Amino acid sequence: MARYLLKRTLSGLLALFLFLTLVFFLTQILIRGDWVLANMPFAPPEMKAAVREQLGLDDPLGMRYVRWLGDLSRGELGRSYTTGEPVLQVIGNVLPGTLLVLIPAGGLAFVLGLVLGTAAAWRGPGLISDSATVLAVLLYAMFPPALAFGLEHLMGQSFRGVGSWQQLVMTQYMRNYPEFPVDEVYRRMLWLLVGAVVAAVLLLVVVRRVLRWRLSPLAGVLVASGLWVGSWYLFGISEPVTALLPLLSIPFIIFTLLTLGDLLVVTRTSVTDTLHDQYVITAWAKGVSDRDVRDLHAARNAMLPIVSKMVVSIPYLMAGLVIIEVASGVRGIGSMLFYATNMRDIPLMLGALVVIGLLTLVLRLALDVITALLDPRIRVEAASEVIRSP
Amino acid sequence: MATMQDISLEASSGFWRRLEIRFSIAWRRFVWSWAIFRRNRLAMLGVVMLVLFALMAAIQPILIESGVWPRGIYHAQTGYDGTISPWPAPPGEGHVLGVDALGRDNLSRLMAATRPTFVLALTAAATTAVLSTLFGAFSAYYRGPLDFIFTHIADALLLIPPPVLMIVLSSRYYEHLSAAVFGLIYGVLVGGGSGAIVMRSHALRLVQQPFVQAARVAGADGPRIIFRHLVPHMLPLAGAHMMSVVVGAVVADGFIGFLGFRAVRLNWGQMVYEAIGWLNVFSEPSWAAIFAPALALSLFAAAFYFISRGLHDVVDPRLQS
Predict the structure, then answer these.
(1) Among A250-254, A326-330, B247-251, B276-280, where is mean pLDDT lowest?
(2) Cα of A312 to nearest chain B Cα, Å
(3) Where are the alpha helices (DSSP H) in B92-195?
(4) A11/B259 touch (CB, cutoff 8 Å), yes or no
(5) Cβ atoms of residues B183 and B127 within 8 Å
(6) Predicted TM-score of the model (pTM)
(7) How far is CA A112 from the centre of its chain?
(8) pLDDT of residue A127
(9) Cβ contacts of residue B142 below 8 Å, gap of 6+?
(10) Is A84 left (phi over 0), alpha (psi -120 to 50) or beta?
(11) Peptide bond before B88: cis, by omega within 30 degrees of 0?
């Protein structure tokens, strides 16, 4: 198992390296301009030349590539062309905003998709089940900017999509809560979220092992969100958080709906497939209760295709992340990448792509772990390293 | 039946005869698959929706050419309605969805935008299907270094968010990113990436099947086994995958159009953006103008997704009995 994961990690890192190479050459070749052209247009030519010399901008492409990789391996991503801040610092500031949307929305959509998809499959084909599927597909295929606009209008806000990077600082909020910078609040919320999720998981495990109650995953979501909301009050950040919630809620709703649609349809198909399987019929025949057949026999085995389908959905979700963050005007890694690309801020853009690549990689590894846990064949194969040649 | 075959055997040479057999096998497989496909009600809904969209794309030029919609008023790019003031205007007589800031009829534009979107969807789907089938079949059959290279390319392509790549490309090739080119690039990204991963795992299962072993024993070489034995069995799944790819391609295209990163004249995303921009004129947003193109985009993408689900049924051997 450990060896399998190590292999997956190494292979993922190799893919990341390939991706970085591709992205580096693509941006260097396609995007004109560099630090000097962007930041000192009116400087005397000899000064420009000196800075170019110092930054090594006139070196051959291959040399710049090697130097960039070297910097990257030391964790240096350079400085932003537009603001002059270190890229790593900018990313550290905006990443919590992304994770605050990604983790709760992804988790909620996953649980809701499983529960609703299983229920739809259990009902069998019919008007309710079919119309739920149609609705789910429409959600999956929706156009995020229009939905963002509609939601913002419903909440009485003005449309924030497609502004500029500077506009995303949210001046109104800053005026009301000068002692709580947005990024700082996001960071605290993120840590509290991680704490709440861990606590909820522990609690559920204890309830299950000690009290022998089998709770629906929906209960886990409820407990975790309850703990999270409670912790805002406990740690005294409830006021700025409630001021920020309308901002976060729009990307949260859109991302949940977008992910939910796909998961619901895939779960429904997958569970429907297992319903025809022998072991489900056997479970019924020996008198297992309906709920147990559904949750323990049918849904459990249906998980594997769902998880492997999710690996394929990752790029769609990451693209969706960029689209949603831009459309709902939230400070995050996706909108940063968008504005950096728009402003031809190459170091910032490459930095964002590195982080998105790493994020995707972590997500894939997590899915690999789940697959290995679910599928005994992979565990066995990983343990004995059987390579089937054709 | 026997006489038919005898007659054609006499009448045609070996080549035509073989072609005929091939065609009749393909036809029978199609009828068989269609019977399975038809049982999926959602897939049939998808087909109906797609036919409606095709009609929409076809009717718009007919309406204008036949003069039902006067060319000067209803042409999607050059028409304007001088009797309405001010532009943009909310839905009214003669203009079901209102007119835009240049006085053009929104419904006509909505219908005209269907054609480029079709071009985009079909290019993206075809590129994905071809690339993912080839990558999957070759890496599953040969394994070894080829498999290693293809798999890692696929993993690397999986990391690129397509809209961002399109924005980078647009910085240099703004004028040249037509719907077909956009579809092609999106297809390469997905077909070489996630599509190749899906098709490879399917092909790995196929390679273990007895008929592939039998072909190998009979002395068939790699390319022959791949193109004659593997690829035909991979096509339905490739079809299912390429249809679901269209969802991402259409939404990404709408987003790029929304942001104006492509020299497009007719695009649903762009129409949404323009309609939102009218808030500078109206105090109340024009819901019809904002949500009609957005809904068209979603329904169009959803139609492909429904068809993809139907094709999945065709692939699944358990549902074929």
Answers:
(1) B276-280
(2) 5
(3) 106-112, 114-142, 144-157, 162-173, 179-190
(4) no
(5) yes
(6) 0.84
(7) 17
(8) 83
(9) B222
(10) left
(11) yes
Q: Give the nearest partner residue to B156 out of A15, A273, A356, using CB atoms.
A: A15
- Contact map slice: A 261-280 vs B, CB within 8 A: 265, 269, 273, 276
Amino acid A132 reads A
Among the partner residues B41, B152, B162, nearest to A319 by beta-carbon distance: B162
Answer whether A138's CB lies under 8 Å from B299's CB.
yes
Give the whole-angstrom CA distance, residue A200 versus residue A220: 6
Task: Report pLDDT for B299.
Answer: 93
In contact, B179 and A39? CB cutoff 8 Å: no
Question: In this complex, is the C-beta atom of A360 within 8 Å of any C-beta atom belonging to chain B?
Answer: yes
Task: Give the pLDDT confidence score for residue B3 in this predicted structure.
Answer: 53
How far, in whole angstroms, is CA B60 from its chain's centroid? 21
- In chain B, residues with a C-beta closer than 8 Å to the C-beta of A153 are 285
Name the closest residue on chain B to residue A310, using Cα atoms. B194
Strand locations in chain B, DSSP E?
none
Is the separation of the CB atoms in B164 and B252 below 8 Å? no
Q: Which residues of A touch B44 (CB under 8 A)?
A: none
CA-based nearest residue in chain B for residue A159: B276
Find residues 125-144 of chain A whose CB sits inside 8 Å of chain B.
125, 130, 133-134, 137-138, 140-144
Residue B27, pLDDT score: 92
Say what the pLDDT of residue A165 is: 61
CA angle A111, A115, A121 (to 5 degrees): 140
Distance from CA of B153 to the nearest CA of A (A): 7
- Residues A11/B155, Cβ–Cβ less than 8 Å: yes
Closest CA to A136 of B254, B255, B302, B39: B302
List CB contacts (< 8 A) between A14 and chain B: 152, 155
Task: State the pLDDT at residue A133.
Answer: 84
What residues pair up with B89 in beta bridges, in sequence order? B99
**Which of B204-237 are b and which e, b meaning 16 or more Cβ less than 10 Å from the residue's Cβ?**
bebbeeeebeebbeeeeeeeebbeebbbebbbbb
For testing contact with chain A, the best of B128, B143, B164, B286 (most A CBs within 10 A): B164
Residue-level pLDDT at A174: 61
Q: Is A353 in Cβ contact with B299 (below 8 Å)?
A: no
At A157-187, the pLDDT tens digits run: 766 666 666 566 554 566 667 667 777 888 8
Say if CB B300 and CB B250 are below 8 A apart.
yes
Q: What average pLDDT does chain B have?
A: 85
In degrees and rounded to multiples of 5, residue B263 shows phi and psi of -75, 75
A96 in Cβ contact with A186 (< 8 Å):
yes
Contacts (Cβ under 8 Å, ≥6 apart) of B46? B302, B303, B304, B305, B306, B307, B309, B310
- Residues shown for chain A: 390
Give the pLDDT confidence of A332-354 residue by residue, as tens digits. Answer: 888 888 888 877 788 888 888 88
Pick the more confident residue, B144 or A276. B144
B197-253 pLDDT, tens digit each = 888 988 888 888 888 889 989 988 888 999 888 888 888 888 888 888 888 899 888
Q: Residue A106, Cα to own-chain centre: how many angstroms? A: 7
* A318 touches B: beta carbon within 8 Å: yes
> Which residues in chain A are closer than 8 Å to B294, comparing Cβ atoms?
142-143, 145-147
A contacts of B163 (beta carbons < 8 Å) = 319, 322-323
In whole angstroms, what is the distance from residue B190 CA to residue A334 CA? Answer: 20
Q: Which of B42, B169, B272 sits opposite A133 (nearest CB)?
A: B42
In the numeric block, which tokens belong to residue A66? Answer: 């090697």
How many residues are present in chain B? Answer: 321
pLDDT of residue B296: 93
How far apart are alpha carbons A264 and A259 in whole angstroms?
A: 9
